[in-house]
Design a protein that fits this description.
The chain is an alpha/beta fold and 337 residues long. It contains 14 helices and 12 strands. The protein folds into 2 domains: 138 residues, Rossmann fold, CATH 3.40.50; 180 residues, Rossmann fold, CATH 3.40.50.
Length: 337
């Protein structure tokens, strides 16, 4: 039986973009055992990808920190006797890990002088291609066809029931529809203005919509700013649910509004209808790839012709260019579809 290791990325959105790889490998190698190596923050997502038989955690900030920690991981990988390693991550550290683990075939992009560590070099692709296609290109270069390029995650029934209970405690019954509004983003530049979210949520709730706001504990100050002036408060679950709960919450939603972020791509990967608010990032490179219905709102403002990482931007005009009426119009289109 062939044993395959996929060395994945560090962030939720990127891991979701990689998800079509695993069913493709399953199709190409029906009897294979397929493991995925990833950092702890994305473990719940990887566990929800069809085709992953095992998740191997690379805890680079914990037990695998330092030389001795990495030697421990190398010995663990060596004991598994993997036949092939597909490196989606471009770091030299990960290439060294699979090299010293003695994995005979090592497939990945050449970066940071790591050609000597690989047995199969993937030719660099244009940086303007979609991030998902960049990851899928690693296995495709090895002759593995990827027929279905849509991202998919599986939500377990017990998780769905747990989220139903959580919502019932917040006064939302099992048959009631919800709308999820995700106000955060992993960097400030990608955030829609807080006052826009306030107006959007106010309008939706005046229409009788049950609005639920998820997020991390770090999102709570921002969420408090968004809802401070609202007389009718939405349900806030920030800091109260885990990633698997979030998947079930997104799947239950009638639609999800979010900036370009991990939760947006997570939502569409579980089949939710989504409205993506894009500004500094480009739909061509990080656009929607899930199987739910999706709409992207993005305005060309002159300085965002390519993905922008100017984190000190004084006015964030690309996100301000997306108006509340445009988002509400997108909501109406999804509701009537």
């Amino acid at each position: 039986m062939k044993k395959i290791l996929v060395v994945n990325m560090n962030w939720i959105g990127d891991v979701i973009f990689s998800s079509p790889i695993f069913p493709a490998l399953q199709q190409a190698y029906p009897q294979a055992f397929i493991a995925c190596m990833a950092v702890p923050r994305v473990q719940s997502v990887v566990e929800s990808i069809p085709g992953v038989d095992e998740v191997i955690i690379f805890d680079e900030q914990g037990k695998h920190k330092g030389v001795m920690g990495k030697i421990k991981l190398v010995m663990e990988l060596r004991s598994r006797h993997f036949d092939i390693a597909f490196l989606l991550h471009r770091s030299i550290t990960r290439a060294l890990l699979v090299f010293f683990a003695g994995i005979p075939q090592r497939v990945g992009y050449v970066t940071k002088n790591r050609a000597v560590l690989l047995t199969h070099i993937v030719k660099p692709q244009a940086r303007t291609i979609h991030r998902s296609d960049e990851y899928l290109g690693v296995v495709e270069s090895f002759g593995v066809p990827v027929v279905d390029r849509s991202t998919r995650l599986v939500v377990r029934e017990e998780t769905k029931r747990a989220v139903d209970v959580i919502l019932e405690k917040e006064g939302i019954g099992g048959q009631e529809k919800i709308t999820v509004v995700h106000v955060g983003a992993n960097w400030e530049l990608k955030r829609w203005p807080a006052e826009n979210f306030t107006r959007l949520i106010k309008t939706l709730m005046e229409q009788g919509v049950n609005v639920v706001i998820p997020g991390t504990p770090e999102d709570i100050p921002l969420i408090q700013r968004v809802i401070a002036t609202l007389n009718n408060k939405p349900v806030v679950l920030a800091g109260k649910i885990n990633l698997k709960h979030l998947m079930a919450l997104m799947q239950r939603a009638q639609f999800v509004v979010s900036s370009d972020s991990g939760p947006l791509h997570l939502a569409q990967a579980v089949g939710a209808n989504v409205i993506g608010l894009y500004g500094p990032t480009r739909p061509e490179t990080t656009g929607l790839r899930g199987w739910g219905q999706g709409m992207i709102l993005h305005k060309e403002v002159g300085c965002n012709a390519q993905s922008c990482y100017y984190l000190q931007c004084p006015d964030n005009i690309c996100m301000q260019a997306v108006s509340v009426p445009e988002v509400l119009d997108a909501v109406r289109q999804i509701q009537s579809a």
